[in-house]
Each structure stands twice: as C-alpha cells, then as structure tokens.
Amino acid sequence: AVFSDVVSGKWYSDAVLWAAENEIVTGYDDGSFRPENSITRQELAAILYRYAEYKKYDVTGKAELSAYADANAVSNFAKGAVEWSVKADLISGIESDGVTVLAPANGATRAQLATILMRFNQSFAASEGETK
How crowded is residue 47: how many other Cβ atoms within 10 Å of its Cβ? Predict the structure, then answer.
C-alpha cells in the first residue's frame, strides 16, 4: 500500500494508487491519504497543478497573492500551486467580511469544485483536443 489508510479493494484504491504513482497526490507526512476527509482549496490547487504537470500543460504562470487578505495563510506545500491556479483563473477569491480571501484551508464546496474543474477543462484539456 502506498498510504497507510488506503486498503486494496475499495472503490477508490486503484485511482489513489495511480495518482500516487504519477506524483499527483502525495498524502500527509504521517503516511496517510485520509480518503474520507474533505479536500481543502489549497489541496485541490496542488492536485490540479500536479495533474497539469503530469499532462505537460503549461504551469509556468504565477499570480501575486498579496491582493488577498489571507495570502499568508497558504501553506508552503501549496503556494506555487495556488499562485498558478489563480493566474490560470481556476481559483478566485471569495468575499468574507468585506474583503477578498483565498480561504486556502477551507473545504471546497461542490459548486466550487465543479466550477474549478470546468475552468480547468476549458483552459487546458479542451485546448489540447481532449474530451470535454
């Protein structure tokens, strides 16, 4: 097993193994993947960034995050991925108490995930002639 908490035979086991083998997911420092946990916005950015690298899409663009009130809350492991995701218009800020924030440690809502995946497909996969 690649991760201590991903056992063979689960509906997601093969997908997690493939993503780990291709360095798209890395799991946590304790060796776990936490398959039942919600995903944070910065974890989603990191996964999309690594997948874009895997597909050899252009990941060179980076946005300056200082316009977001919580830019310093982005974890080091995800900083480059979040900068790329913002530059690529995959992730945008959300309004919170009158300021625009990234909310990197917040869970991604289903609506946010659907929007981010649609933007990713339109910006990258569709331009490569892949299935929409």
Answer: 17
Q: Which of 26, 62, 54 shows the shortest CA–CA distance to 124?
A: 54
Judge whether 62 and 84 are in contact, CB under 8 Å.
Answer: yes
- DSSP 3-state of 63: coil
- The C-alpha angle with vertex 129 and arms to 86 and 16, in degrees rounded to 5, equals 65
108 to 7, 36, 116: CA distances (angstroms): 25, 14, 10
Tell me, what's the pLDDT at 21?
A: 97
The predicted structure's pLDDT at residue 131: 53
Provide the whole-model pTM.
0.91
Largest Cα–Cα distance in the chain?
47
- The C-alpha atoms of residue 33 and residue 39 are separated, in whole angstroms, by 11
Residues in the chain: 132
C-alpha–C-alpha distance, residues 110 and 42, integer Å? 15
Q: What is the model's pLDDT at position 130?
A: 61
Handedness of CA 131, 34, 47, 29 (dihedral sign): negative
Q: Name the residue among 46, 39, 85, 48 with its Cα closest to residue 65.
A: 85
